[in-house]
Amino acid sequence: MNIKELHTDQKAVSAVSLFKGENNMANAIQIQKNETLKEHITKIPALLLCVDGEVVFENEKLEKHTLKKGDYVHIEPNVKHWLIAKETCQLVLFK
């Protein structure tokens, strides 16, 4: 199975559960080129891994990171953040 097969091309942003454990989870996220995952907050620390494509991670603390295949960023709890896809991207979010 391939992570790209979990999503359709008809949605600008798609999220699918990959794994749920007792205390953790992983979601597969796809964002189409030039689309945005609007600002939101996580209540617990998270890690975002770019599997394919290119996406810009920004937060309210004015941090900005461009993620390409293999790049990752730690997401702080209780800090607004959002994503902008420069290319259609495949991401995995770990919490």
From TrEMBL:
SUPFAM superfamilies: RmlC-like cupins. InterPro entries: Cupin_2, RmlC-like_jellyroll, RmlC_Cupin_sf. Transmembrane segments: none annotated. Residues 31-88 form the Cupin type-2 domain. This is Cupin domain-containing protein. It comes from Lacihabitans lacunae.
